[in-house]
Structure formats: C-alpha cells, structure tokens
Specification:
By secondary structure, this protein is mainly alpha-helical. A 5-stranded parallel sheet has the order 2-3-1-4-5, with helices on both faces. The longest helix is centred in the N-terminal third of the chain and has 27 residues.
Length: about 400
Amino acid sequence: MPPRPHPLAVSRTADLMNRAITNMWKRGLTVQPPLDPDFLWAKGSRGFAREDEVSIRAPEDVADFRARLEALCRSLREEAGLNALGHTMAYGQIVAAIEKRHALGRLWRERPELAETDIAPPIAVVGQMRAGTTRVHRLLAADPRHAGTRFCNAVDPVPPAPGHFDWRPLKTRAGLAIARLVNPWLDSQHPFGATRADEELGWLTTALDVCAFEAQWHIPGYVRFSEGRDAAPLYREFARILRTDAAYMGDAERPRVLKCPKFAEDIPALLAELPATRLIVTRREPEDVLASSVSLVAAQSAFQSADLSLERMRLEWERKLALREARMAAALDHFDGPLAKVDFTALGRDWQAEIEQIYTALGLTLTDAALQAMGAEQARAANGAHHAHRSQIAGFSAS
C-alpha cells in the first residue's frame, strides 16, 4: 500500500478516470446522465412492475423513498460540487438502490414469507464510527453460535432464485478490485473482504439512508433532511432484509451480530422493529474519533469532488458526532434490555477480557470454541492493512 501524501490525495487511476469521463462527455461519446429523480427512477425501475416497488411495503415507506430520492438529487446537484467521476458514481449508486428496491419488492411479492422469517434476538454493536465497532462486531460474529452478514450480502441484499448460483461473492471481489484501483488506500480505512462479516450499511442505503452518502459527498441539505425525518421506514426495510437474508443463509436460529454507525442515531427505530435486540456500545476518546472520521471521509470524497475543505469536514463531523452522541445517550437512558459497554483502549490492551465482560453483561456463555474462533479472527485482523490508517491520521493532523 503506497503512503498517503495528503488527506485529499487522489490516485493516478482516479485522476485518469475523471479526465476520461469528462472528455467523453465533451466529445459527445456518451451523455452525462442527469441527477434527476424521474430519470434515475426510469433507469432503476426498468424491467420491473409497479407492484414490485410497492409489494408488501406500507404506503408511508413508499412515500419516504420517493421523498428521499427528491431531496438527495437536489442536494447532489446544488451542493456536492461533484466532478465527472463523482457524478458517475452518484448516478450508479442511486440507480443501483432503485434496482435493488424493486428486485426485493418482486421477491417479497412472490415469496412474502421471507420477510416474516422468525429470527433469534440479534446483537447490535452501536457507537460512533471509528470507535472499535468493526473489531467488536467481527469478534462476536466469529462465535460459531452467532451469525454475521457477509459483506457481499450487505452490498447486494437480493438473493439468487432457488437453484441458481450465488454470484454475489465474485461480483463483490471484482468491485473491490476496481475500488482499490481508484482508491489504493481503501483497505487502510476498513478491512474489506467479500465474504467477511461486515456492517449492514448497504441495507440502509437500499432505502436511501444518508449514512453512506454523507461519508462521500458534501450534501448538507440532504443530511439535515434525513436527520429531521422519522427513521421508521428505513428500519422496516432493514428488518425485512435481515429476515430474508437469515432465511436464505439458513442461520435464522442463530443471533445475528449487527453493526452500522447509523444505529447510534436510530436506536429507537431499530428497537421498534427488533425489540429483543441486545446492545453493545463502544467508546473512544472524542478527539480520536473525530480525527479518524474526517480522515476516512476525506479519502472517500477526494476523488469525487474538487470542491473540498478539510476544515469544513472537521466542523461538519464534529457536529455530526455530537448529534449521534446525544441521540444515543437519550435512547440508552430508556433502554432496559441487555447492554454491554466496551472501551476502545481496553479492547486494544486485552481483547479477551473485554469479550468476557461483554458476554457476562449480555447473559451469554463464552465457550472454548468461541474463543478459538475469535483468536483466529484477532490474528487475521492483527495483520490487516487498516493499521496504516494511524499514519494517515497523523498526516491529516499535520495538514
């Protein structure tokens, strides 16, 4: 992995791709797709019936998606300052979300029982991004008695038809290979793997939640729009996808270990759909969380826009992290279910001791088989490229 010279550094591949797309648009070799809700809807819904988008969803869920699409497109056009590559990536992500929404709707129209699959009470890792949530999540998901969501399933929640090959792992590996060319520092920010247990960010993105988008683009209008809306439609969709994934993977009887930074904002909405959820809250020093968060967002934004400011990012994410902290604290004040708390520093010092206290707090039994599997996951993580992110943050702090 090459050293990152600056938080807003752009790879040669990303620069060449941006120039190539710009030249194709100028020469009329291809048309710049408008970030217009109706245009994107026509592209994403092609080949599907109106009944597929509606399917088993409540009318308010359908209306919420359309409202989010309008607001997101407006923010992208008016605020994001996207370059050609960023414009293309925004177009692709939104069209993909519309396609997946229809594909899931068609699946549930044909097999509504999938979205009602009985599942074991899940375990949700909540806390600020960059606060050790991934590490805790993967350690618990390694327990053979638990289940975790494969990254490829999180990216694409639509399972193949019965008897058909599941191409999602291969497609995700190909996607990661391309992403690493565009952003060669990708794995320093998060340890990716097509079939590794990972966060369910993609499931919320399918409902056009803001979480994945605000970490890529400057879209303050859509961020405020999303923060002011009821999150219930997002988590109704999330729960349907979770139950469907559990049915397909055949692990509905095992507690699914869930994780997403957005949970910190939306604990009440999450618990409304999954009321028996056990919670794990991770903590890290606020200044460390802020530095790591801004470094991550800068890396994901740099190749998609030339209109960037590190100070603006710092101020926005200082505000965002404070909002998440306040909402999380308010929700936990009213939570009387099983709850464990994890300290980031303590986890680094003695991960096994932290795991033991988590299991005690949640009323779980820690077996030798679980510890052995967690040890293997810990060894794998210890050699991961994400440790290089520390030096990137140091570079960011000096900028």
